[in-house]
Amino acid sequence: MAGVRTTTGQGATAIDAGPDDATLVVRAREGDPAAFEVLVRRYQRRIYQLALRMTASTGDAEDITQEVFLTAWRRLPEIRQEAAFVGWLYRTATNRCLNLLRRRRPTAELDETTTADVSSSEDPQRSTEATEQLVALSAALTTLTPQQRAVWLLREAHGRSYDEIARLLDTTPHAVRGRLARARVHLAEVMQSWR
Amino acid sequence: MAVNSRIDGHPLPCGRLVEDVFDDVETGRTDAHSAECEHCATARRSLHQLTEATRLLVEDPAEPPPGLLDRVMAAVRAELRRGAALPLPAQLGPAEVSEQAVAVVLRYAADSVAGVWARSCRIAAEPARPGTVRIRMSLSLRYGSGPVEPLVAEVRRRVSTALSGQVGLTAHTVDLELVDIWPYERRWSRT
Amino acid sequence: MVADMSEQDIVTEIRVAAAAAQAARATPGVVRLQPDLWGLVRRFSQQVWERVTGKPYPDVAGVEVQLDDESATIELTLVTDGRHPAASIAAAAQRAVVEAVTTRTGLAVTSVAVHVCEIDITHRGQPAPTRRTSTRRRAGAPTPPG
Asked: Which residue in chain B is spatially nearest to A5 when comparing CA positions?
């Protein structure tokens, strides 16, 4: 899907400025909470959005995001490659989402109120059609297997590399491509029927 | 039609696999069949729809709840332990300043030099000389910020000034180590 | 430890702490006193203070006092304003605390230990005021000790 992968959707905000991740990780590791706060501000949105689209629950997404950053703080001394901090966040968040989905009963999979809540973007500028499309995609995502959902979100919504996704799901880039292709066909089909 | 046809795909009524139609869209391939076939056209439309919705998801309007950052940071600060401290000259009782507090001041001073970010900063008291410390700081420089020597000298000067002006200690030595150079464009964000 | 002390000792200790806290906060360059992470209000001391003096418990967070016969040992944890050297601010706070405690309680001060836990650099570039007011002071506090 050309044009989608090149952006992160994060736009240029105030948090773009400031030291690079590696610098902030070193500072935080030496006990500077302000440096860690910059990292949280920088990535909380992306991690929350991943968790939200994985779990389709604002409550679970919030819990997972909070746990991911707290664990990051505690594990700072173990993070050897400082520049890989964001990759570490993605790996931890994805694993936590998959664990949660494994424990969750299948009946709880699609919570209508949560899904509606998730997609009611409080942005009056957004067209109704765009909002509906997002609702449809969010709903379609819940019909994928958790693994496929993770692959699709990490690649298509978050622009992570095949290699990285393969490593974090403990599989091969080839298998990732396969899952992604299947996820895409499935999503296109579900979206089509929604139309 | 794509060369690497799959056996495990989703066949369309025309015999082509949805996967192959998608591949063709991505790579810009086209042939006589796909230009005419309505099944292939429908598959392409569904892909475009998904692409469109995906773009919306990439710019996901969902925001983390406003209290999340504060809760994370409150927990982080609660876990902070009082680290090492450096003695300050004083007469009416022992006075000390946290090494971490001094590191924040010194990194800030180094950061004020354009193109420089201070990373690690460790400060140790010089036991033989009260009121003086040794500083070890690692730096990350932006490529193209100019010759390294004068930049580093400026960092050294500002760090020493901050140490005396804001902390009230004197630098015995300031060891600066260059650990990373980043190109101007390479920021954390992929913009 | 507190339980072994007489009520009068407890009241005196709080009086010393309140005088020290007020003097430290009034010292130019002191942004605020920082309570210890475990620095919860000692409920027992507070109850004794309120019963004996009939006054609200003063804001003594960030101050530790140890009484020893006729003299007091005091510990302060504070945040300094980065526009002045932390060492000078710490020394000034020590002088102000000794002066205030001696004058207001009649006790000698053995030593005033100061721990600077943070240097506030958020106001760099702005002119330093002669005196900064604590932003974290609780409403109604501090109450000057009687």
From this structure: B58
Interface probe with B: pick from A8, A15, A66, most Cβ of B within 10 Å: A66
User: For chain A, which domains are there?
Assistant: 17-111 (1.10.1740.10), 128-195 (1.10.10.10)
Q: How far is A169 from chain B (nearest CA, A)?
A: 21
B64 vs A: CB within 8 A: yes
Q: Does A8 contact B189 at a Cβ distance shorter than 8 Å?
A: yes
Of B109, B108, B104, which is closest to residue B80 (Cα–Cα)? B104
Q: Are residues B96 and B171 in the same domain?
A: yes
| CATH architecture of the region C2-120 | 2-Layer Sandwich (3.30)
C92 contact partners, CB below 8 Å, separation of at least 6: C27, C28, C29
Query: How many CA atoms are closer than 13 Å to the CA of C74, on its beta-carbon side?
Result: 37
Cβ contacts of C132 within 8 Å, gap of 6 or more:
C28, C29, C30, C31, C81
Residue B83 pLDDT exceeds 50: yes
pLDDT digits (tens, 9 = 90+) for B28-58: 888 899 889 999 999 999 999 899 999 999 9
* Whether C116 and B92 lie within 8 Å, measured CB to CB: no
Asked if B108 is an interface residue toward chain A (Cβ–Cβ < 8 A), one would say no
* Alpha-carbon distances of A159 from A165, A193, B58, C17, rounded to whole Å: 10, 27, 9, 57
The mean predicted confidence, pLDDT, of chain C is 83
**What pLDDT digit, counting tens, does each position of A154-176 carry?**
999 999 999 999 999 999 999 99
Q: Give partners of A (≥3 CB pairs < 8 A).
A: B
Q: State the Cα–Cα distance between residues B12 and B24, nearest whole angstrom.
A: 15
Per-residue pLDDT reduced to its tens digit, A71-130:
999 999 888 787 789 999 999 999 999 999 998 866 554 544 444 444 444 555 567 878
Q: B79: closest CA among A8, A60, A33, A77?
A: A33
Number of structural domains, chain B? 2
- The amino acid present at B124, given as its one-letter code, is A
Distance CA A95, CA A115 (A): 22
